[in-house]
Amino acid sequence: MSYSEDKGKYQKAYDFLYNKLVPSSGRAMNELGEALRLVSKVYYRLNNDGDSYYDCVEYGMVPDFTGNNYPFDKEYKKLGQELDMLLSSSKYDQAVSLILFHIMLSLSSESNIYNPETNKLVPLESVKGRKALADLDINSVFINYCGKNEEWLPESLRKDGVKITKSLSEQTKIELKCDTIRELYKEKKTGYNKHTVKVTLSKDNTILSKKFSKIQNQHKKSIKEAERKRTALQKKRENDKKKLLKNKVKDYNVTKMFYQELKDLKIGKRVDSLKKLVDSKIKKDPIVKMVLITLLEYKEKQVTTKTQKENKIEVIEKLTKGLNEAGESILKSLSYYDPTETFYSYNIKVDKDLDTKLDDLLVSILGSSEAVEALYRGCCRY
């Protein structure tokens, strides 16, 4: 029996439930409907394009069913793992049947079971109900819970009573004060091992049409909520974009002001003003920062002899002129950029010839290339 040939185990249920839960486009009505949509998509790709489940995951057509993502998260995480195992073993029909079983179970209740042949709810106690249980491979077992809250039981057992699984006469049930409850079990196979799993049904005994109406209403609410979140996220992105652009323009203008100040720098610049230039967070070309630091050091240097004074003045003049040229060079490169563009960047770098010239100036002032390298390591290497 194959769903690809319209002869699956629960074919009538598949045709009906797929139409009820899976829209022509977009996400299905609920988690199980989405699981049915995704597995059906994998099955379709196999039959029409030869893609395996792994191919579908790799190409992003479906999520990894074990990845703890919607719909295989929260209460359906285990279902995702089971489907992954079946699809990985090329058991596509079993995967479809497993989801259909979970959907039909979710639509059933403690009084009515989903009939996969008629797509209707039928009473559990009826002939059709027993037939539906058999079609779903569910075994019905009556369990007796006896002696609940009775003093003749040990105190540790009184709360729930004693569970007796064997058949009891009506007289015995009365004498032991038993509550007889129907429990449902389904045989499950894991590898070569078989075990039974208890089936729990909902207490919601509403008719099937109302169950589908509830699912559809919840789906509509989820769509509205998703749209609200999407709109809020889009608004946030737009605000973040405006804020980013505002900060870019501000940064650009502050940077221009800094290098304009370097271009206009005078020999008599006060030490405290130079310190502010050195300590500012403005992006600086390393060579510019090194020249600024050297200028500040010479400004603060205490000299006594005439020769030392003359040398200090000469060095300050050279360093100031170098910074004037650096400011002009970087201002020129900044003029080519428009900070209001969505994507832009500007280069805080003096031209190559000026870089070499300033490096040579520092070597002549500090005495060696090693001294310049030490200065670089101390201020510009991060």
Strand line-up across the major sheet? 4-3-5-6
Count of helical regions: 14
Shape: elongated
Strand content: 5-15%
Detail the poorly predicted runs: none
Give me the strand/helix succession. HHHHHEEHEHEHEEHHHHHH
Mean pLDDT: 91
What is the multimeric organization of the chains shown?
Answer: single chain
Q: Kindly name the structural category.
A: alpha+beta
The structural domain count equals 3
Q: From the alpha carbons, calculate the radius of gyration and give it in angstroms.
A: 40 Å
Biggest sheet statistics: 4 strands, antiparallel
N-C termini distance: 68 Å
Helix content: 55-70%
Number of strands: 6
Can you characterise this structure?
The chain has 382 residues and is α+β, with helices and mostly antiparallel strands. The chain folds into 3 domains: 107 residues, no CATH class; 87 residues, no CATH class; 133 residues, no CATH class. Helix content is 57%, strand content 10%. It contains 14 helices and 6 strands. It has a 4-stranded antiparallel sheet. A two-stranded antiparallel ribbon has the order 1-2. The longest helix has 56 residues. The model has no long low-confidence stretch (mean pLDDT 91).
Key phrases:
single chain; 382 residues; alpha+beta; 3 domains; 4-stranded antiparallel beta sheet; two-stranded antiparallel sheet; 6 strands
Outline of this structure?
The chain has 382 residues and is α+β, with helices and mostly antiparallel strands.
List the helices and strands and how they pair.
Layout: H1 11-21, H2 31-49, H3 53-58, H4 77-88, H5 92-107, E1 112-115, E2 120-123, H6 127-135, E3 138-146, H7 155-158, E4 162-164, H8 170-175, E5 178-190, E6 193-199, H9 208-263, H10 271-279, H11 286-300, H12 306-334, H13 352-366, H14 369-379
Antiparallel strand pairs: 1-2, 3-4, 3-5, 5-6
